[in-house]
Amino acid sequence: MTPAAASTELAAAARNITKRYGKTVALNDVGIEIRDGESHALVGRNGAGKSTLVSILTGLQAPDSGEVSFYGKPSPALSDREGWRHNVACVYQKSTIMPALSVAENLFINRQGKGLISWSKLRKQAAELLEPFDVKVDVTTPASDLTVEQRQLVEIARALSVGAKFIILDEPTAQLDGPAIERLFERLRALQDSGITFMFISHHLEEIYEVCQTVTVFRDAKHILTAPVAELGRAELVDAMTGEPGGLSVPGAADRPTIGDKSTVALKLSGLSGDSFDSINLEVRRGEVIGLAGSASSGKHQLAETIYGLRKAATGTVEVDGKAVKSGSVVDALRHGVGCVPRDRHHEGLVPSLSIAENATLTVMGRLGPGGLVPPKQLAEKGREAIKSYDIVASGGEQPVSDLSGGNQQKVVIARALANDPKVLVLINPTAGVDVKSKESLLGVVDRVARTGTAAIVVSDELDDMRVCDRVLVMFHGEVAHEFGRDWTEQDLVAAIEGVTEK
Ligand SMILES: Nc1ncnc2c1ncn2[C@@H]1O[C@H](COP(=O)(O)OP(=O)(O)OP(=O)(O)O)[C@@H](O)[C@H]1O
């Protein structure tokens, strides 16, 4: 995006903001100034305070102290939702769209006005609103049928239609595949050219360089720096986020001993077919890490979810250590030693009201104490262990998971998957929402368990997550179209994912 588009007027400003949750100081006298027309990145490690600032900038909660203003005017009262909606909108990772309502109803929610609704007029207006966004859906479609990409565009269109010119994008690319990210960025550029201001939160630092002009770094609830993106190198940016010098090093598969044919087969898929994938045969040996790559429609998620029992296979078998696992049963998969990090931590991953310790031990309750009850001392120990091993930012193991930042919740999901000492580990987007430094330590965990003989399957859109893999299988239209060894190149992999190379 062109820096020239930004002016000196401030679209949004937050000054001297402090916010506490009990003993936790989530924001400690921080500020941010977002110039009209710019795209301003907000980055920081998990738990740095980014989402808390977003909730204050969107009027979802009040700060304990400090002020927010838009275009030089003080923010509306918290109860004036309409006033906030005119100033700012946020596209969250978690949808704010009502799944049961149609696209048109979602676009006009809360503002049908008084009197009878003219459905035909509403549908026509909805179609007009979406037209510039090239969202190819019938506006009467239920919102639950939208892809993540379409859902985000509907949310942006909705924000613009109520007059907001400042939009916050909270990790918008976390659930998108490569081509969808490119399409989103093209649209952001066009919107910025038309004068829309963005605040952009992402753990993918290369995206900051691609779409933003200014970057602000928060660390441990404090403002560390604000600088033009062009003047801050990637290493300096990471140093500011972590507070310590030294680059990043993602563990690579090449550092582990090669897995020979003599190693026992831990997981065997024979003629496995299901929703979106067909006739998959695969053997994964003890200590071997397999990457599953492919576009969103490749069938990779469905295959992984069938292995850990979330989906029932149409035909074929899944065997762990030579024993067949009952199809479509997560409990049976767990019993055979399959651990999983699911795609959606909000729905399948965690029990938000339970503590870190309780969530981290959900898969092993029966083994820790009689009748599934864990003695408090042992539970506290497990909580401390999880916090230490997985680098979780929290006040203690007894803290409810609902209080944790998104990235830290993801670390609890990983702790839970590993608590059972699984023979086979299935990880879907394991580093989603996780900061750069924690990414490195989580991939280190995969490397470590592989060394102890666990077989792992890593499903991810991130090439960095594939570096820890011994083999990378690229799926295309439900089949394994390519297989790469440890020596894959980024170019080969991307070409195979997009289906532009010969088999
Ligand atoms: N409702 C809450 N109750 C208690 N503590 C909370 C609550 N919401 C956030 N916190 C704490 O405030 C701190 C900042 O959290 P926040 O969600 O703003 O971080 P973040 O920078 O968005 O992290 P991430 O990158 O993981 O999304 C964290 O320590 C978190 O545990």
UniProtKB/TrEMBL annotation:
Pfam families, alphabetized: ABC_tran
Alphabetical list of InterPro entries matching this protein: AAA+_ATPase, ABC_carbohydrate_import_ATPase, ABC_transporter-like_ATP-bd, ABC_transporter-like_CS, P-loop_NTPase
Transmembrane regions listed in the UniProt entry: none
Location of the ABC transporter domain: 12-245, 259-502
GO molecular function terms listed in the Swiss-Prot or TrEMBL record: ATP binding
Record key words, sorted: ATP-binding, Nucleotide-binding, Repeat, Transport
Coiled coil start-end: none
Keyword field contains Repeat: yes
UniProt name for this protein: Sugar ABC transporter ATP-binding protein
